[in-house]
Design brief:
single chain; alpha+beta; 4-stranded antiparallel beta sheet; two-stranded parallel sheet; 13 helices; elongated
């Protein structure tokens, strides 16, 4: 894991407690083995902001309802993410992760809209990997909590552990889940990433769950190029271009490929269509400002050598797709976008050592031939 410079320079300062002898009633959904210590929410929030988080919310650690997740999995909408089912109970109930769980802290870090750059890479992935941005801050937050009380138990999660960040973000008041399934904040829109921390401590005041504010708007649903939303708020990952270009290492289905023009890693269409993202938004975290690789075209990404990719993609989310995955996606984007000037490159990649790249290049050439037919 990449370690951010400056963690050691953060000097934790004690949080303020209410009377630690005060007895609390049982919080619904939590087991009986709980600690009586009560934290002041405003002080917890201030410490989180001091650690570099822009958005902070606090929710009681009562279990989430199981039916929405179970229905989503049973419908097959998880695509290749079926491993979610293996830790389903932990995802829904914080007390199964941290004994005596009382509070879920939810953190948000905006990455900005980035209007000044046209890129085949989704906005969230153009700079430093958001996992690192959150982990650095959560490590600092955990240090502050442990310095205060070494007996505090925590569980921190950035997108890959036993937690449902968006559901908890809505419950903790950071925003509301839109019809595109993304968490939307009134000030930052949906251009921010999430993490959370489970504590075996209660706070004096919790944030109210955020009301849903989409109203009658369905712009995100109609904008999706692959009709990936079977109903509002429900995503079929099998048809989502973000899933296909980031998570899917098998061949991308033929019926989806024509929609990959201009898209090599991720997809922002449903965010771009959202009116909450059309307003003037605050700048994002500067550590997630676009890096040089985000300025490359699809053809330039397809033409990268292994050493060039390793240098340019280091520390970014593009590592998740890998060298061959990015070049595969880039070939498909060139074919779908009728980039006739890329034909020599694609012909060369037809002989590539990667079967995935070779197949994608051949598909792209066939598309270019179809476009050029009278």
């Amino acid at each position: 894991m990449v370690r951010a410079v400056g963690d050691e320079s953060i000097r934790p300062e004690p949080l303020v407690f209410l009377d630690q002898r005060r007895r609390l009633g049982q919080i619904p959904g939590c087991d009986g083995d709980v600690d009586d210590t009560l934290l002041i929410a405003n002080d917890v929030r201030a410490e989180a902001l001091a650690c570099g988080f822009t958005l902070v919310g606090l929710a009681p650690a009562a279990p989430l309802p199981a039916e929405p997740l179970r229905e989503w999995l049973d419908a097959g909408y998880a695509a290749g993410l079926g491993a979610i089912r293996k830790r389903m109970e932990e995802r829904l109930d914080p007390a199964r992760v941290v004994r005596g769980a009382r509070t879920v802290l939810v953190f948000g870090v905006p990455y900005g809209r980035g209007d000044d750059l046209v890129s085949p890479i989704a906005r969230y992935a153009r700079g430093r990997d958001y996992h690192y941005a959150h982990r650095d801050r959560m490590k600092a937050m955990r240090k502050r909590l442990l310095l205060l009380d070494p007996t505090i138990h925590t569980y921190a999660c950035v997108d890959a552990g036993a937690a449902m960040e968006k559901a908890w973000g809505e419950r903790a008041g950071l925003g509301f889940i839109g019809k595109n399934g993304l968490l939307i904040n009134r000030r930052h829109g949906s251009y921010f990433t999430l993490s959370l921390m489970i504590l075996n401590r209660a706070v004096d005041v919790y944030d109210d769950p955020h009301p849903r504010l989409c109203g009658d708007c369905t712009r995100c649903l109609s904008a999706c190029p692959t009709n990936a939303f079977p109903r509002p708020g429900v995503l079929d990952a099998r048809r989502c271009l973000a899933y296909q270009t980031v998570e899917n290492h098998d061949p991308i289905p033929a019926e989806l490929r024509p929609q990959l023009a201009g898209r090599v890693f991720g997809c922002d269409v449903c965010q771009e269509a959202c009116p909450w993202n059309e307003r003037d938004l605050p700048p994002g975290d500067p550590r997630q400002d676009p890096r040089p690789i985000a300025q490359l075209t699809s053809a330039q990404l397809a033409a990268l050598s292994p050493s060039e990719f390793a240098e340019l993609a280091a520390g970014t989310p593009l590592i998740r797709a890998g060298y061959d995955g990015i070049r595969r996606n880039a070939c498909l984007a060139l074919g779908a976008g009728n980039r006739q000037e890329a034909l020599p490159l694609l012909e060369r990649l037809c002989e590539d050592a990667s079967p995935a790249v070779m197949e994608a290049a051949r598909w792209a050439i066939e598309q270019l031939r179809r476009f050029s037919r009278p």
